[in-house]
Design a protein that fits this description.
With 338 residues, this protein is an alpha+beta fold. The chain has ten helices and seven strands. 62% of the residues lie in helices and 12% in strands. Strands 2-4-5-7-6 form a five-stranded mixed beta sheet, covered by helices on one side. It has a two-stranded antiparallel sheet with strand order 1-3. It is elongated and about 120 Å long. The relative contact order is 0.07.
């Protein structure tokens, strides 16, 4: 807290609040001076009385200014606390201040009630969707087992759609876990190539079905991260690349001039320049997403949240009609290995 700055703020407010009182005081002094003069009271007596009154007035102003500063610093200190009790407000000095504090306490009580109601409702919703996500896995697994014994073009297509359903359910699960992500982290040093290959293997069927070529360059890098959450990010990015690449190639490689930057590059439809700055916003789908009509605007938002929590960085470069590059900067200076 800049004490000098805060005192200047209080001084300006104090002068503004008391300027009228000072003006009235000067007017009264002038009136009494004129009356004393008309009554032939010696000027020395008038000046002496004015000096005494002025001195007492200055003492009162200094005391009031001290109380104003004290109250202001108490309020600033209270405001800077992460959480505070409304009962710790400074003692009221006037009836109007008491009215303000009474109104503030009523609003605070109402806000706490709304917060409690919201948390209760939100917890119920999270519990419901968590239960739903777990229960939906049973029919998905059953359908997957049934399709394994079938062959044909239609069966292959059904397997692709079932795989997409699994990924959407997984996205819901990760979204629900996002609120407690920090307690779910397990930071350690992992082989980035192993993480990437696991994700690629999971999506191998999608590459074959969509006839998309994968170019996976050697990734001889170890990173300090959380394997599960980083895998989720790469899965989402690979899923997007496959969704918007109708033909061509998807490349995964380390950036040559940066040892810790993983690049996922596709030759898909790309992203318009006006949409690019907003791709990580929650619910934003952009022009291509609206054309696709199946985009949720959730995948890239979750990727950004996860990368931030892991102290990693994510950046996207794209040109419409040419393709998209996603750069994952996996250098994490602030986290420690478990």
């Amino acid at each position: 807290m800049n004490i000098k700055l805060e005192i200047n703020i209080v001084a300006k407010a104090f002068i503004k609040e008391n300027i009228k009182i000072a003006a009235v005081y000067l007017v009264f002094c002038l009136i009494f001076g004129i009356l004393f003069k008309l009554q032939s009271v010696p000027i020395d007596v008038v000046l002496y009385a004015s000096e005494v009154c002025g001195f007492l007035g200055i003492l009162c102003l200094v005391f009031e200014f001290y109380k104003a500063c004290k109250k202001h610093f108490e309020m600033v200190s209270l405001k800077n606390q992460i959480s505070f009790n409304i009962d710790n407000l400074p003692e009221c000095g006037t009836l109007i201040e008491g009215d303000y504090q009474s109104t503030l306490k009523d609003l605070y009580a109402h806000m706490k009630k709304m917060e409690s109601d919201f948390l209760t409702e939100s917890k119920g919703m999270v519990d419901y969707y968590t239960l739903w996500a777990h229960q939906i896995k049973t029919p998905i697994t059953a359908m997957s087992l049934i399709l394994q014994s079938e062959e044909g073009t239609a069966t292959a297509q059904m397997k692709q759609e079932l795989f997409k359903i699994e990924q959407y359910v997984e996205m819901v699960m990760q979204y629900l876990r996002m609120g407690s992500m920090n307690s779910d982290l397990k930071l350690a040093e992992y082989s980035l190539e192993r993480i990437v290959k696991q994700v690629v293997k999971k999506y191998a069927m999608m590459f074959i079905y969509n006839k998309i070529t994968l170019q996976l360059e050697p990734i001889e890098v170890k990173v300090v991260t959380d394997e599960k959450w980083l895998s989720f990010v790469i899965e989402q990015l690979l899923s997007n690349a496959l969704k918007y690449t109708k033909e061509g190639t998807i490349k995964i490689y380390m950036k040559k001039d940066a040892a810790n930057i993983l690049v996922i590059e596709d030759t898909g439809i790309g992203i318009s320049q006006e949409d690019l700055p907003r791709v990580f916003e929650q619910g934003f789908t952009g022009y291509n997403g609206r054309m696709d009509k199946k985009a949720s605007g959730l995948g890239l938002y979750l990727c950004k949240k996860v990368m931030d929590n892991l102290s990693h960085k994510i950046k996207m470069e794209s040109e419409e009609g040419v393709g998209t590059k996603v750069l994952l900067n996996l250098y994490a200076e602030k986290i420690r290995v478990e």
